[in-house]
Design brief:
193 residues, alpha+beta, Dna Ligase, domain 1, D-amino Acid Aminotransferase, Chain A, domain 1, 3 domains, four-stranded antiparallel beta sheet, three-stranded antiparallel beta sheet, 6 helices, 9 strands, 17% strand, globular
Length: 193
């Protein structure tokens, strides 16, 4: 894309998925050019994309979050005071579940960290919490209907999201669960300005 003084934009609807498109880089570029765009500002986008930073914000405010370690190399594994298994190993600043691995014991940890380091220079080793996988969109401070995700594999990784044809999605009809979840999200979600 080449910008010049003869072009004027009413608004940009950013559809770039993943790095640069979701991590605040495109947003900051548009801010510098004073071009309006749809979505969160660059600061909120960068905070939300960096998993360790986002976890800290939530933990410092209202949510119990899984235990985690942030590392930058395989060498740091030996210095961690407590490891928890099973765990999820993932790049700290990557989307679409790229580079994510579920690790059940110490033997798989190095390989999982190396895989995550292919996507980012920081890796989050996070306590695995078994449970229901839900996604809830929030639009103008209002939670939409929860959608339950059933991957055919053990974790909802890149393959389950974009390649597999056997991942299932169900709109919740269980009113009590939906109402409680929507109420919680609406009460505790806030946009970072």
């Amino acid at each position: 894309m080449k910008l010049n003084d003869n072009k004027k934009f009413d608004v940009v609807f950013n559809l770039i998925h993943g790095g640069f498109g979701e991590d605040g880089v495109v947003h900051a570029f548009l801010d510098m050019l004073a071009i309006p765009y749809v979505g969160s500002n660059h600061f909120a986008s960068s905070l939300a994309m960096h998993k360790a930073t986002c976890k800290k914000i939530w933990a410092d405010s209202i949510l119990n979050v899984p235990k985690a370690h942030l590392i930058s190399s395989v060498k740091e594994i030996s210095s961690l005071d407590a490891l928890f298994f099973p765990c999820i190993v993932k790049p700290a600043n990557e989307g679409s579940s790229n580079g994510i691995t579920k690790v059940v014991d110490r033997d798989g940890l190095i390989e999982a960290v190396l895989k995550a380091l292919e996507y980012d220079h920081q890796v989050l080793i996070e306590q695995f919490i078994a449970g229901t996988e839900l996604t809830v969109a929030v639009i103008d401070h209002e939670a939409m209907t929860p959608i339950e995700i059933f991957p055919a594999t053990e974790i909802y990784d890149y393959h389950a999201k974009y390649v597999a044809e056997d991942t299932q999605f169900f709109v919740h009809q269980k009113v009590l669960i939906a109402v409680n979840l929507m109420s919680f999200v609406s009460k505790h979600y806030w946009p970072i300005k």
